[in-house]
Amino acid sequence: MADLKAAFQKAVAESKQLPDKPDNATLLKIYSLYKQATEGDVEGKRPGFTDMVGRAKYDAWAAVKGKSADEAMQDYIDLIESLK
């Protein structure tokens, strides 16, 4: 478990130094997996239609609802590795 957390923290640092900026769909996937791994399932109300960015982030996070923190960390690590 400690190894997974260390690998996750390393991937978080590496995500800020990717050679190319990922497309918006990939950025949302990175965001949703990070939030799921660090905070758990999304809570609160879905932002209104005037907040398109907030709504997209909420929807992306809601899409991984129920995924365990360990699963989300591993998926995050795998995604960042695939973007290098």
Describe this structure in words.
The chain has 84 residues and is mainly α. It has four helices and no strands. Helix 1 (2-15) crosses helix 4 (69-83), helix 2 crosses helix 3 (52-63) and helix 2 (24-39) packs antiparallel against helix 4. The longest helix has 16 residues, at 24-39. It is flat and about 40 Å long. 18% of the residues are buried.
Radius of gyration over C-alpha positions, nearest whole angstrom: 13 Å
Helix content: 55-70%
- The count of strands amounts to 0
Secondary structural class: mainly alpha
Main sheet summary: none
Distance between the termini: 24 Å
Count of DSSP helices? 4
Q: Estimate the strand proportion.
A: under 5%
Q: Tell me, rounded to a whole number, the average pLDDT.
A: 95
- Give the overall silhouette: flat
Low-pLDDT segments, ≥5 res: none
SSE arrangement, N to C: HHHH
Write the layout of secondary structure elements.
Layout: H1 2-15, H2 24-39, H3 52-63, H4 69-83
Main traits of this protein?
84 residues; mainly alpha; flat; 68% helix
